[in-house]
Structure formats: structure tokens, C-alpha cells
Amino acid sequence: MSQTTATDRPGGEPDEAPSGIFGRILLFLRQVLGELRKVHTPTRAELVQYVLVVLVFVAFMMALISVLDLGFGQLAMLVFGEGTIAN
């Protein structure tokens, strides 16, 4: 468990809220830069792996939804239509 309390301020940020619109903008920009420093850029191998995982997942979902759509379409034609889509 963490040994810090809710009143501890990591990073040495001031306790006072910035005054005015420009102070808030500067605080926002400092926080954005702080978060950007934490970003991990993936290696080429990681990037290729992530892209392949996404493509396989999208292809699987497309196939699943296509099969469900065809099945529900056939069911709707049997219930409401003339019996089959081919007619």
C-alpha cells in the first residue's frame, strides 16, 4: 500500500490555485508537459504487434457481425417475407 496521504503533494506543486485565466492556462500547460514526459513510445516490434492485434480483432468482429446480420435477415424473411432471400 502507498505510504502517502491525500495531503501530500507529489512533484512539489504549489498549494495555492493559480490566479486568473493566464495562471490556469500556464498550470494546464505545465500539467500537459508533465504527462507527455510519461509517454512511452512503442518500439517497431511492439507497434507491429499492436497493429496486427487490432486488425485481427476488427476482421473477427466484421465476420461475426456479418454472420449475425445474414442470420437475422434470413429469420426476418421467414417471419415477414416470402420465405427466403433468394426468391
From TrEMBL:
Chain ranges passing through the membrane: 47-68
InterPro entries associated with the record: SecE_bac, SecE_sf, Translocase_SecE/Sec61-g
Localization of this protein: Cell membrane; Membrane
Pfam family, one: SecE
GO biological process: intracellular protein transmembrane transport; protein secretion; protein targeting; protein transport by the Sec complex
GO terms for MF: protein transmembrane transporter activity
Swiss-Prot/TrEMBL keywords: Cell membrane, Membrane, Protein transport, Translocation, Transmembrane, Transmembrane helix, Transport
GO cellular component: plasma membrane
Chief location of this protein within or outside the cell: membrane
Its membrane topology: Single-pass membrane protein
Family membership: Belongs to the SecE/SEC61-gamma family.
Biological role stated in the UniProt entry: Essential subunit of the Sec protein translocation channel SecYEG. Clamps together the 2 halves of SecY. May contact the channel plug during translocation.
Description of how the protein assembles with itself and partners: Component of the Sec protein translocase complex. Heterotrimer consisting of SecY, SecE and SecG subunits. The heterotrimers can form oligomers, although 1 heterotrimer is thought to be able to translocate proteins. Interacts with the ribosome. Interacts with SecDF, and other proteins may be involved. Interacts with SecA.
NCBIfam families with a match to the protein in the record: secE_bact
The protein, known as: Protein translocase subunit SecE
